[in-house]
Design goal:
- With about 200 residues, this protein is of the alpha/beta class.
- Helix content is about 25%, strand content about 30%.
- It is built from six helices and twelve strands.
- A seven-stranded mixed β-sheet has the order 2-1-3-4-12-11-10. The protein has a three-stranded mixed β-sheet with strand order 5-6-9.
- A hairpin with a 2-residue loop joins strand 11 and strand 12.
- The radius of gyration is 15 Å and the shape is globular.
- The chain starts with a strand and ends with a helix.
Length: about 200
């Protein structure tokens, strides 16, 4: 089977780290800034950053509707931190003008774990990731308040949901791309391979 081509939405946020992590997980990784670049990838990562800024830039660059259409059509997507917020069907406390791509039946709370200076790391047991717990880096991280019946909770921290999967869509509150541990990206690459038609 050919190596999957996975894009990283490169409008704002920690794009480079995701490109490195995807390459380490045996994918071809490339930045995506335009609709024609989105059309050329098998799957997409939505990086951490500022969810309101990414949302507004996606609209400005003409990417929001193509993103929604590809997710609805079954393109695998993985969102970290701000990316998790963008994949939520509902935000509890949205900023003015903030839109989401949707894809996971969940309600999220922005910056739920606190401000930048309250960032922390914690060991997180993630369902589907073998071996030791994943080192989760939480930076102004959201958490998931609740999920619908179609969404599967993969991890919790301190009583709060921090990793969710719904079909071909994966989301984490934390940043595995910042740790050098590429197992969560490996899980996503496996999802992409399973999603591709033979």
């Amino acid at each position: 089977m050919s190596t999957p081509v996975i894009g990283v939405l490169a409008l704002q946020g920690d794009v480079r780290e995701h490109l490195i992590a995807l390459a380490a997980a045996d994918a071809v990784a490339r930045p995506v800034r335009r609709p024609e670049e989105l059309a050329e990838v098998d799957a997409l990562v939505l990086p951490g950053g500022e969810s309101t800024t990414i949302s507004k830039l996606a609209v400005l660059f003409g990417l929001m509707e193509p993103l929604r259409a590809r997710v609805r059509a079954g393109m695998p997507v993985y969102g970290t931190c701000a990316g998790l917020i963008l994949l939520a069907d509902k935000i509890l406390d949205p900023r003015s003008g903030q839109e989401t791509i949707g894809g996971i039946d969940m309600i999220v709370r922005r910056n739920a774990f606190g401000r930048q200076n309250e960032s922390f790391e914690a060991a997180v047991d993630v369902k589907g990731v073998e071996g030791a717990p994943v080192e989760g880096v939480f930076i102004r991280a959201p958490w998931v308040e609740s999920v619908g019946a179609a969404a599967e909770v993969l991890a919790e921290h301190d009583g709060h949901i921090v990793a969710v999967r719904q079909g071909h869509v994966l989301a984490t509150s934390f940043h595995p791309e910042l740790t050098g541990d590429h197992r969560v990206h490996g899980l996503f690459v496996d999802m992409v391979r399973a999603n591709r038609t033979p």
